[in-house]
User: Fold this.
Amino acid sequence: MQLLNSSVGRKIIMAVTGLLLISFVIIHLLGNSSVFLGPNGINAYAEHLHALGPLVWVFRLIMLTLFALHIWFGVQLTLENRAAKPIGYAQKKRLRTTFAAETMIVSGLVILAFVLYHLAHFTLQVTNPEISAGHLPLDAMNRPDVFSMVVLSFQKSFIALIYVVAMLFLLFHVSHGFQSFFQTLGWNNKKSLPVFGKISKGLALVLFVGYVSIPVLIFVGIVKL
Ligand code: HEM
Assistant:
């Protein structure tokens, strides 16, 4: 409990939950890339995941807790930081800070909005039920047709655009967030700071290109039914 009461403790929780969330985003991208293998890729992947049964719910509960802690302490730290800075924007100095660092709360809240939409879209399948795996016929191997759901979704410009824009915010968030992890744990010094900065930006870019390639390649018709 002492950990939660100190600002350093809260930062450590942000760092650890942030790292675990980034790990999920990396693994989720690897799994989603199976869409490029066609129905036998992503439908088989989805079927294996769902076959884990109760384990899926344990995983979902862990994810929800991580996400809730990360958001709760992120909002709290932002409010604390703002309260501690009495100077108005007229005098605001941009000392060793970046656009991504200053807008972490904005990019974070946009990612939250995206995740809520994304769950409604692909997991609950309520935003476009007519093209959801729950409504479409099973595939040739009698599996829920996640491939057709994803392809039919990203053929719609509005849905593809939502995903591309959301991934831009993810790019900003991870490009600063990953580097903050090392800073919070005190693992960086003058020499290593630029290195961690580059690793962070590189990872954010790889995730951005990887995720965006899915809606874009489907929208332009390179990946199709
Ligand atoms: C092009 C981008 C993306 C695609 C195509 C995609 C695809 C999917 C699909 C098909 C599912 C449903 C899996 C199933 O129940 O069978 C899913 C679930 C999910 N996605 Fe994504 N995703 C994308 C980006 C993201 C991003 C960037 C995040 C996080 C920031 C994310 C977080 C989640 C979460 C939390 C779930 C729920 C997992 C569960 O049901 O337990 N996704 N995604």
About this structure: The radius of gyration is 20 Å. DSSP finds nine helices and no strands in the chain. The first helix runs from residue 2 to 5.
